[in-house]
Here is the input.
Amino acid sequence: ALYQRVENKEASEITAPILEAFYYMLELIDMMGSCETGFSNEDRELVFIFSDASSEEVRSQPKSMKDEIRKNLEADGSSGRDVKLGWIGYNEAGEKTHKAWAQVADEDIKRWQKSQPIAIAELLGAICAVKDVIGDKENVDVVIYIDNQAAESALRRGSSGDGTMAQLAHELHLFCAQRKIRLWSSYVQSTIA
Here is the structure.
């Protein structure tokens, strides 16, 4: 609007302070130089990742047996969880480039101190997936699909209200920043209706 006012001097009166501010802004714009960043789209690899986690414990058992099974597991020092992470990576052409899975150690699950560790497991799975698929590459665009809203939110924001998830999200964002990786996340439902 200011530019239009200066260019069309007949439309309204331009006072000296307004004109001075206008020329000062033009000077600043000239001093900024190019607005291109290291994040141009040229020569950037694009990858798609689907990550997931499972946290099976005693769900398949009848309700009457669950408490007894959990007591026995706790007495043995076990978390009572079998947490697995899995992921698949695809390139821009839709070709599968990576597939892997990992078992989360029982000691780690106990350290999380959660009765329902699935959100942390989903976030950890996403981090493992990104690091596995990216490796030592730089300047990569990553689109990751995840079926847990809390984990997806932590991925997107780079933080969480949960301390463990916040640390994991911070670590992934640092990894991405160090390698000039642009990360997009999207929540997807885990079941098809």
